[in-house]
Structures are given as structure tokens and as C-alpha cells.
């Protein structure tokens, strides 16, 4: 069960990274400083992938990995919406419109 949950969280992380990087739909309100957040997201995505592949047969560790990275995804979503910076303040929409 935790393999499926972990895969879902990993897929959501990939979706968030690609929407932000290639389609410019996610902004953190820092202007050019958003690149820092994208770098952090890709670094944590790589760490999540490595840990998932390393502990793919150990459910107790996959549970911990899934919970930690779910908290990370929630914080990224909050940072992209309610906690957005002053360059692009939050307008009530999840995705940034150009």
C-alpha cells in the first residue's frame, strides 16, 4: 500500500516541477528568485526518487519517506499560493496566469 502512496506523491512532485518549469504556471512571488525554489524542488525530487528506489521493498521506511515528502508538497503548495511573495501576490488562484 505504501508503495502506491509513495508513487502517487512522487508523481505529484514531478507534475509540480514540470508545471512550474516548462509551463510557468507556478510562481512563488519572488520573480527571478523563483529559480531558487525550482532548484530546491528538483533536488528534493531527486532525493525522493533515490530513497524510493533504495528502500522499495521496506514498507516501514517507505511510510516515513511518503509522510516526509507529503509534508514537503503541502509546504510547496502553500508557498505557491497563500505564502507567495510580493512580486506576484496571490490572487486566489492556484496556478499563475501570465
Q: Could you explain how this protein is built, in words?
A:
By secondary structure, the protein is an all-alpha fold. The protein has one domain (2-80). The chain is built from three helices and no strands. α1 runs parallel beside α3 (59-80). The protein is elongated.
Estimated share of beta-strand residues = under 5%
| Total beta-strand segments | 0
Number of helices: 3
Order of helices and strands: HHH
Q: Looking at the structure, what is the overall shape?
A: elongated
pLDDT averaged over residues: 87
Measured distance between first and last alpha carbons: 39 Å
Q: List the domain count as a whole number.
A: 1
What kind of sheet is the major sheet? Answer: none
Instruction: Work out the radius of gyration.
Output: 14 Å
The amount of helix comes to: 55-70%
Low-confidence stretches: none
Class by SSE composition: mainly alpha
Describe the structure concisely:
The protein has 98 residues and is an all-alpha fold. Helices cover 65% and strands 0% of the residues.
Task: Give the helix/strand layout.
Layout: H1 2-22, H2 34-54, H3 59-80
Helix pairs in contact: 1-2, 1-3, 2-3
List the main descriptive attributes of the protein structure presented here.
65% helix; elongated; single chain; mainly alpha; 98 residues; 3 helices
